[in-house]
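From the shared-data thread, chain only:
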Amino acid sequence: MFINVIPLRNFTRMSGVASSWYLLVILAVVGEALGSNCTSLDPCRADRPRDARGCCQRMLGETCGYVEGEEDPPGSECDSDLGYECLGGTQGATHGICRGSYSLAVSDVTNKTATLTWNDFNPDDLEYKLLMTSGSYKPNLTDWRQYWIGSSPRYELTTLVPGTQYFMRIGVGIDPLTNITEVIVFQTRPVDFCVNNGVHYEVGRTFSHDCEDNCTCLPNGHFDCTPICEEPTLPDPTRCRLVEAEEEGSCCSVTVVCAPVMADCVYNGTGRNYEHGDTFEAGCLECTCDNGTVLCDYPESCERPEGASCPDPQEIPVEGQCCPQWRCGNYTCEDGGEVYSNGAMWRRESTCQTCNCEEGHVACHDLCEEPTRPENCPRPHLTKPPGSCCDVIECLPPEGECYYEREAYTQGSYLTNAKCELCVCTDNSTVLCTPKQCRTVVVPPPNIFCPHPHIRKDGCCDTLWCENPDQDLVSVIKNLFGTSYSPHSVTLSFMEDEAVEGADEVESEGYTRTKYQLQYSSDDNATSNDTSTWQRRTFDPRRVHSEDEPVPSPTHLLQTTGAIRVGQRVYVTVSGMEANTTYYLKVLVINSGLHDDSVGVTSQPPQYAGALAVRTLAEDASSPCPTTCHSEEVLMVRSKSCPKPVLTRSRGDCCPIWRCYPEEGGCHYKNLILSNGEQIRENCERKCLCEEGNVTCSPLCEETGSTPRPGCRLERLADHCCPCGCAHPELRPLRRCQ
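Structure, as C-alpha cells:
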C-alpha cells in the first residue's frame, strides 16, 4: 500500500473543505489497513502476539467472527496456538465463541490455590499429566514443567505463587503425548501484605533490611531488594583511601577520603617555584613551601626569648643583620583563673558581662538591662530563662485566676489544652491536667473485628482505626481519638459541631440534644463483627461547672463511666474494663435533629461515626510526667537580652521551657544574641557582623603593602592588635605612626 503524504506547509494552505476531505481519506485507508476491529493499541491479554492484521487474538470464552464454509469476515480470530477454535452457537451464525476441544476450565482461584476440570478423554484409565508455565507463554512444551496427577478429570493446585500469570494444559500418554488439551490462562490473586521476621508490610511498601538492602513488597508475597550502598571506588589510589564513617546510624559506613591537591609556591626573594613540602634557604632564613604559602624561620642561632620573663615576644628586623631584635610584650589579662591575650573578648557568666583585655586591663560592660514592667501585668515576677544569664519579667495570673496557653480562666473552671487533655483551674491558681497517655500504636493484621486496620491522628493521639481509611466521619463530630487513662477504663474524645455544641442552650427553641451510643467488645469476647452481640452504652454529655462541689479532678472524671462536655470537646468514658486488653469500639450519633411542632419531634436516624480499637493500660502503667507545668502558666516578657521569648518543647521532655531568640534580622552567635547591624570583635583575629540573620566574620587587620610614611616600617606594637608602628633603624624606642 502506498500513501502520498502532503507536506505540512501545503496542508495548512488548503481550504477548510479540502483539508477535511483529505483527513477522511487518510482515516479510511488506515482503517482498511488495520481492520475494523483493531482500534485498541493496548497490549493483548496475557501478552499474546497480534495476528497478521495487527489485531489481538481472542481468548477462551470471548466472541469471534465465524461463517460456516466461507472465508472469515473482518473480525476477531481465536488464538489457535493456544488450541482455541471459533465455534458458533447455530449453523450459519455470523459470530461464535472461542472454545477448546476438552473444555479445560479453572475455578476457585485464590492467591495460592486453584481447581482445574476438563472433559474426561482417558478411555484406557491412563494417568494424566499436568503441563504448566508462568509469566509468559512458551511455544516449546519442553520448557514447561510437567507433573503426573492421576486419572481423575479434576485436579486441585495448592502451591501456586500469588499474583502470578499461569498457562496450563492437560495431556495423556507416554512421551510423546498422544493427546493434549487447549491452554487455560489465569492469574492468582495478589497478597495483601508480605511478612519478614514476623513484621507485615503492605504491597508496594519499601523498608530497609539490616542496613544492607532496600526491599519492596511485591504482589506475589516476595520482596524485591536492591543494595542501599554502592560499591565505593577510588578515583585516585595514590591520594585516596577507604575510611570507616564515624556517623552513628549510617548504613553506608565506608567513605572515600582523598588528600587535597597541594599548591606550589612562588618566592619572590629567590625568583623560583617550589613544590609543596620543599625546603630552601632565602638569605639566612630557612623556608618551607606549605600548600602555596612560603613559611620562613630564623636559624636556631637566632635565639627567641621564652618563659614568663618575656611573654609574647615580638621580632623587630634589623637591616644588615640576620637575627632580629626582640621586644617583650606583657599585655595579658587574668580573669577568673584564666589568662587572656591582649584584645581577647570573653563572657563572664557570673556577672552577665562581656569583657575585653585592653593593654593588660580587664574592661567589662553589662549584657543585661533593667527589665521594664509591661502593661497589663498584675503580678510581675523576675526569672532567668534557660541559656540566658539576664533576668526577665514573666507575668503571673491575678489572684483567683489561672493563666494558661495565653488565656485566663477563673478558679474551678474546666478547659481543654492544645494536647486535647482535660484540665481544671485549681484554688491555688495552677492548672491541673490529666497525664498524657498517648502510646505507640502497632498495626495488627486484618481480622473480622478490624478488617482495615490503619492509624489516624484526627485528635492528639495516634489511634488504631478499623474501617476503610477513605471513609469520612459524619459531620456532627470530628477529631475523634481513643485512649486509656486507667487499666480499667477506655476514653473516647472528639470535637462537636458548633451547632451541636450549643444544643443544650437552644433546646427549647427546637433543637434535640445530641446523644451518643458506644458499642464495644473485647477481643476475648467478640465472636463476630455483628454488633448486635456487643455491649452498648448511650450517653448524654453533661457540662461540668465550677459550681460543682467539690471540684472533681480531671483524672477522676476520665476514669469513671460517663460523658462530659467542655467547650466543643466531648469525653466519653466506659469503666469496668479488663486491664491490658484490646477493645473494639463503634460510635454512633443519635437524637440529633430539629423539632417540628406540626408533626411532633423528628430525629435523624443514628449516624455511624467510626470504628476503632483501644488497648487498656497495664496494672503497673504510670505516667512519668507531672500533671502541670509551671512554664505553661506564665508569660515571659520581651527585653533587650531576650528580644523574642518562645515556649518550646524538646522531644522526650514532659514540660516546655522558655527560650530566647533574636528579633527578625538578628543573630544567635556563641551564646550571644545580636541585633541586626551589631558588630563584635573576637580576640585580635577577626571582627564579626550580624546582617539579616547571618553572621559574617573578616580579619580584624587590613593587609597593606605600603608604609605609613617614608623612612618607617609597619610593626606590631604590644598594645595594638594590628601593625601600626613606625620603626626607624636609628631611633629607639619605637614611635607611633603619625
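DSSP finds five helices and 62 strands in the chain.
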